[in-house]
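User: I'm putting together notes for a lab meeting next week and I want to include a structural view of one of the chains we've been expressing. I don't have a solved structure, so I'd like a prediction I can at least talk through. The sequence is below, exactly as it appears in our construct file.
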Amino acid sequence: MLKNLDRPKTASELASTCDLPRSTVYRKLEQMVDAGLLVKHEDGSSETRYTIDFDEVVVRRGRNALELNVVPKRRSASEQLSELWSGVTAQTKSD
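Assistant: Thanks for the context. Below is the predicted structure for the 95-residue chain, given as structure tokens.
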């Protein structure tokens, strides 16, 4: 699914592209959002869009196991403020 997120996409688009049931796609998308790999964009439109939220994943072989490190995307201060404000706005609308 990550390979097919070359641009913001809905769960329906990913289900079609990946030839997977929508229920599976929704479940996996939520797991990836919770893990910090994806961002969920809810802009009031009919469907939520998802985007990748990391620059790279580094896998190293340790002594007894594989080590996994996810490198988050770099964000400018204005991008961070915009994300924070969007979250505050969404929270106040739901209250």
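A couple of points you could mention at the meeting. The chain is about 40% helix and 25% strand. Residues 2-94 form a domain with the Arc Repressor Mutant, subunit A fold (CATH 1.10.10.10).

User: Perfect, that's what I needed.
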